[in-house]
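Onboarding guide, step 5: your first structure request.
Type a short instruction followed by the sequence, for example:

Predict the 3D structure of this protein.
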Amino acid sequence: MQNSRKVISILVDNKPNTLARISSLVGRRNYNIETITASETHMPGVTLITLVVTDTDPDVLDQIVAHIEKLEPVREVHVMDSTGGLYRELLLLKVIVDKDARSSLVEIAEVYRAKIIDLSRSSMIIELTGEPSKLDGFMDLMSEYELVEVCRTGVTGMNRGM
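The system replies with structure tokens like these:
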């Protein structure tokens, strides 16, 4: 993760409007949410929300965390360690492909350990999981091809150890 980005991990009870309240709170502090993900956890009725925010002044970030912690459905809030964390993102990419370009696309996919999950005569869908910088590098190479659709999930992550 780049240093100007901070990852905030928020464990919440799965209640209506929680995600909207959190994103609104961050927006009111004039922070941009670069990515946001929400998913079920191993605990019934509990959701993990992961925010990536940019241009983070440490004092304002502390204020945001303190305000999020006060919201009723919030159980825990952590600003993740930028060096000790493991971060992943999923990319799905549909690209127009002809016979001549197919082999070069397969080679690029193999180098990045991407999966070709759909193939037709005229298009290919590629799946890639990894750190955001890996996906950015892959997208740089893919810009030479005719992209039809690109979908990125946003960052999720965990700190190492206990």
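Each response can be followed by summary notes, for example: The chain has two domains: 5-79, 87-159.
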